[in-house]
From TrEMBL:
<keyword id="KW-0697">Rotamase</keyword>
<feature type="signal peptide">
    <location>
        <begin position="1"/>
        <end position="18"/>
    </location>
</feature>
<protein>
    <submittedName>
        <fullName>Parvulin-like peptidyl-prolyl cis-trans isomerase protein</fullName>
    </submittedName>
</protein>
<dbReference type="InterPro" id="IPR000297">
    <property type="entry name" value="PPIase_PpiC"/>
</dbReference>
<dbReference type="GO" id="GO:0003755">
    <property type="term" value="F:peptidyl-prolyl cis-trans isomerase activity"/>
</dbReference>
<dbReference type="InterPro" id="IPR046357">
    <property type="entry name" value="PPIase_dom_sf"/>
</dbReference>
<feature type="domain" description="PpiC">
    <location>
        <begin position="77"/>
        <end position="193"/>
    </location>
</feature>
<dbReference type="Pfam" id="PF13616">
    <property type="entry name" value="Rotamase_3"/>
</dbReference>
<keyword id="KW-0413">Isomerase</keyword>
<keyword id="KW-0732">Signal</keyword>
């Protein structure tokens, strides 16, 4: 009985010391670069730098972290392990949201793209929903979502697409087209949301 008690105490002491050591390491991390260097010493797929966005991530954990200050550490204990989350950076980033239909000119003839474009524009004017048209025509993998891009941070899509997404002359629920000669790509785009500033954080996750 005494041996078991001693063993239990030793295990608890070792665990406490390990967690204290990790927290001391986390206290020294103030930049993403430092976080990435720390991850090089802790090889595990569970350890990583995460990005949480107040529009995309609605879990209790994400909400709690988004509402804490830079430098804060949140520790979550389960039966199997202890996970530490440290908020490294917090920023307000411009985001946009569109729905689009994409055509790859490298696999589809230009004349066919023109025909499809005309069919799509006419169908939309006749009252056909854009998401139904995207599901039918788009060559992008988001066709199943009706072409919805979700909220995207600036730099997520080709420059030509984003220039039009941020163009205030393009009103909501209006269609415009973008052609990118360099990649032989063609987009039919519906502006679905106004430009929005969204809170975003980068978090270092370390699992004991």
């Amino acid at each position: 009985m005494k041996t078991l008690l001693k063993l239990t105490i030793c295990l608890l002491t070792a665990t406490t010391l390990a967690q204290t050591s990790i927290k001391k390491e986390l206290d020294t991390i103030t930049t993403v670069e430092q976080a990435e260097k720390l991850l090089e010493t802790k090889k595990s797929r569970k350890n990583k730098v995460l990005i949480f966005n107040e529009e995309k991530h609605k879990t209790k954990l994400a909400t709690a972290l988004l509402n804490t200050n830079v430098g804060s550490i949140k520790t979550v204990k389960t039966e199997f392990n202890t996970t530490h989350y440290k908020v490294i950076t917090k920023s307000d980033e411009r985001h946009y949201r569109i729905s689009y239909i994409y055509f790859d000119g490298n696999t589809l003839e230009a004349s066919k793209i023109v025909d499809y474009k005309n069919d799509i524009l006419k169908s939309y004017e006749d009252g056909i929903r854009f998401d139904d048209l995207a599901k039918r025509y788009s060559m992008d993998r988001n066709a199943k979502r009706g072409g919805d891009s979700g909220w995207l941070k600036e730099g997520s899509m080709p420059t030509e697409v984003e220039e039009q997404a941020f163009n205030l002359d393009n009103k909501l629920n209006t269609i415009y087209t973008v052609r990118i000669p360099e990649t032989n790509s063609f987009y039919i785009i519906l502006k679905t949301e106004r430009i929005k500033t969204i809170k975003e954080i980068k978090v270092l996750k370390i699992v004991d």
